[in-house]
């Protein structure tokens, strides 16, 4: 029985075993670090089935939920209110709808001029600074962090604090007590910040949520802290990794990079392909079966865990022609890099807009961009639940 999680040995490819599983044993059992077993599903069709079926719960606080932490201890649990990420019906729908209006295509379009300004300012600073520069520090991390901070009404000046703590939370090796402490620090920080907004709620996402839930008679600071926490963490680390990895893919495929520079109308398609190709959130998208269900001819029983391997699904030849090729011109939008079904990424329009603006601007303003370190020497995040690169020295 395979031991999970498997690591990516090549930044451009899934763990080798994914392809074999998808072909020969698409719904199969694996061993988790705590010694327990879980199902893994690897085909595009099956991943979408599981993620769209209420027989599979997203309640990560349940003791039987598959846990990939090496210590094999239960996931951190405390008195935090649940966030939408861990909710099932009937709670999930209302929690998601309460904030959905902040992430519509129209809302995000209104933020584009400010996003463009942020990207330009970061590039001004990078271009004025020494070479080589670390793309992660100069561009990938600050852009999504600033955007989500401004949306929420969190002072960007505190970004070091929550970036350090987020990194500790998602690193698989972080001992559970440290993980819990990092989690508690960000939660206490947000609690204080939100308390400070209660007297005169400002016109930012957190302030608007205070007013809205007060008007509905159900304001509860603990729930808003959990929402703020989820958005802050989900909103910067993921997009940041995609900025670095997407840049890496373009640098490794100069003809496609030139094609994109010549025709920015292709950038949105390129972004979908980058999301598919790297699928940075892979084993994290897990579920707990709550009613016996057949998937691909195999019965998964209530009480059993399932990892839906998005990176395997996104390389499924049944869903994508020549799936291992990076091709910015392919139709890739049916990828599952943002998940699928009711929990599909709430921030996807925001992430797409950020990535589109970043790549358009980077290609236009820094045409001579190149890596200052060979790809093989880059420190990839093989040890984190969300894939990416820690540092990426570039020059121009
Ligand atoms: C959910 C990926 C950016 C907020 C998810 C899920 C995935 C994902 C795979 C589904 C998790 C599951 O089903 O268990 C990504 C990727 C991103 C990204 C790859 C960047 C490239 C963002 C941003 C935000 C965000 C920018 C917000 C500011 C959320 C939220 C959920 C979520 C709130 C939970 C939705 C729910 O449970 O209903 N994301 N995400 N994400 N994402 Fe993202």
UniProtKB/TrEMBL annotation:
Entry keyword set: Heme, Iron, Metal-binding, Monooxygenase, Oxidoreductase
Sequence segments annotated as region (Disordered): 56-89
Annotated family: Belongs to the cytochrome P450 family.
Protein name: Cytochrome P450
Provenance organism: Actinoplanes palleronii
Taxonomic lineage from the root: Bacteria, Bacillati, Actinomycetota, Actinomycetes, Micromonosporales
């Amino acid at each position: 029985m395979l031991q999970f999680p498997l690591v990516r040995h090549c930044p451009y490819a899934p763990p080798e075993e994914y392809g074999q599983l998808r072909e020969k044993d698409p719904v199969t059992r694996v061993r988790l670090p705590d010694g327990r077993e879980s199902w893994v599903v690897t085909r595009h069709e099956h991943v979408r089935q599981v993620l769209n079926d209420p027989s599979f719960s997203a309640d990560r606080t349940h003791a039987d939920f598959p846990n990939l932490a090496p210590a094999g201890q239960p996931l951190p649990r405390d008195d935090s209110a649940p966030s939408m990420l861990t909710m099932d019906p009937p709670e999930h729908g209302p929690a998601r709808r309460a904030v959905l209006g902040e992430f519509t295509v129209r809302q995000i379009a209104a933020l584009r001029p400010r996003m463009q300004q942020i990207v330009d300012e970061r590039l001004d600073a990078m271009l004025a600074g020494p070479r080589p520069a670390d793309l992660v520090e100069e561009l990938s991390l600050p852009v999504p962090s600033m955007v989500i901070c401004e949306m929420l009404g969190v002072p960007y000046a505190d970004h070091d604090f929550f970036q350090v703590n987020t990194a500790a939370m998602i690193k698989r090796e972080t001992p559970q007590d440290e993980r819990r402490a990092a989690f508690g620090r960000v939660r206490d920080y947000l609690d204080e910040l939100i308390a400070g907004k209660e007297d005169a709620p400002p016109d930012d996402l957190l302030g608007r949520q205070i007013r809205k839930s007060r008007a509905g008679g159900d304001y509860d600071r603990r729930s808003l802290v959990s929402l703020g926490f989820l958005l802050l963490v989900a909103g910067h680390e993921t997009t940041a990794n995609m900025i670095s990895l997407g840049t890496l893919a373009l640098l490794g495929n100069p003809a496609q990079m030139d094609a994109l520079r010549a025709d920015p109308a292709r950038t949105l398609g390129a972004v979908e392909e980058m999301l598919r190709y790297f699928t940075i959130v892979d084993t994290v998208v897990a579920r707990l079966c709550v009613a016996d269900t057949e998937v691909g001819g195999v019965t998964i029983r209530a009480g059993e865990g399932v990892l839906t391997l998005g990176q395997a699904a996104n390389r499924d030849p049944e869903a994508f022609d020549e799936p291992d090729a990076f091709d910015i011109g392919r139709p890739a939008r049916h990828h599952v890099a943002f998940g699928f079904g009711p929990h599909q990424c709430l921030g996807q329009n925001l992430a797409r807009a950020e990535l589109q603006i970043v790549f358009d601007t980077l290609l236009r303003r820094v045409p001579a961009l190149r890596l200052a370190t060979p790809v093989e020497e880059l420190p990839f995040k093989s040890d984190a639940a969300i894939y990416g690169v820690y540092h990426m020295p570039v020059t121009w």
